[in-house]
Structure formats: structure tokens, C-alpha cells
3-ketoacyl-ACP reductase
Amino acid sequence: MNKRILVTGSSRGIGKAIALELAKSGFDVTVHARSRQQEAEQVCEEIRMLGRESHVLMFDVNDRELIIQHLENDIAQFGAFYGVVLNAGLTRDGAFPALTDDDWDDVISTSLNGFYNVLKPLMMPMIRMKKGGRIVTLSSVSGVMGNRGQVNYSAAKAGLIGATKALALELAKRKITVNCVAPGLIETEMVTEEVKEHALKMIPMQRMGQVEEVAKVVRFLCSDDASYITRQVISVNGGLI
């Protein structure tokens, strides 16, 4: 049986690049999206063209009951996941005094409740499989150093780093590694020209990163070559920090 990895938020951007990179490396990949089903199905088709198995799971990472239902059904049909990449995230940028309650709650919940909601139903099946495993979370340079106009996002991504490190301690003896990748400014449709102009001045390499550069780091952390790496935060940011 091939090793299977779930990648949340993988219908586009960094998540899509991660899903395709993992498929190229020989993993079967389960694609996830909240609402972009057509795009997610397209990613699945690209994965199948690489000779790997793939299907789509649709759910909001904040909907705990729906997640349990989907993941338990999926495991019953296909077996336990070998790995999970938590990429789903949300930004609602703005100066702190201007943030609404929803701006705060939605961003925090997507990262931190999403961590709990997705991983909790998957843990015991992974452990019972007794074949080790890989968990990779996607934080951000904002979670490492903080960023003006992103107090909510910085808090969410810093919290994700803490959760990642704590879970790594619990799972190390099970040979399940848990690591975090913290991208800097990456070329995606979410990055505005204003952000580019401001941020490029701060990046020593004077360029934005590409989604494939993040994906290759995640792929390495999911590989057998990374079996002695756990509880680490790996930054992909062009020397920003």
C-alpha cells in the first residue's frame, strides 16, 4: 500500500504546489478545500496524471463535527494517513485598533482550531498503524517575528509553532515527526503590489520566493531522509530573519 498524505488548503497556491510535489515523490495525496471544489478536482487530476491516487475532501477546518465525519469515513475506506500537511490559513490584515471581533476570531480559529480539528481524528489511526508518520504545519515569518498590521495572523501562526513543538514531543517515540515550515514573502495571488514593494526592501535576496521552493522543503520533511528531524521550524524567507 502506498503512503498517503492529506494536504489541507491544497486547491491553489502553496498547498497545490505541496500536493503536486508530494505526488511527484511517490505519495498518494488527498486534496482538501473549503469551497473551491472545481479547482481541487483539477489538482486531483494533475496528481493522477503523475500516476498517484488522489481524491478530494471538502470541509471548513472550523467545522469539527463535519471534519470528524469526513475523516473517519475516509480512513474507513482508504486506511490511515501516513502524513498530514496543515496548510489551510486565513488573513484579515489591518491595524490592531481597526480589527473586528470576526477578524480576530476567524484568523485564530482557522489556524489553531484547524490544527486540533484536523489532527485529532487522525492521530490514533496513525499511531495504531505503527509505521511512523509525518506532520508538517505551515506557519509564517509573521509567526516567528511578528508583523505590523497582522497582530491576529502573527498570533495565530506563533500559536501554531507552539502547538507543533508540543505535539512533536508527544509523538517522537512513535516515530511520527512533527515540524513547521515558516514561509516569508511567497509569490501567490494573495500578495498585493503594495506588499511586494514594501517587503522586497527588507529581504536580503531582493526577490520573492516561489511556491515550489516551499513545497520542496515540505516534501523533504515528509521523506525518509528527514526521519531524525522533528520539533523544528524551518524558515523559507530569503534571509528576512
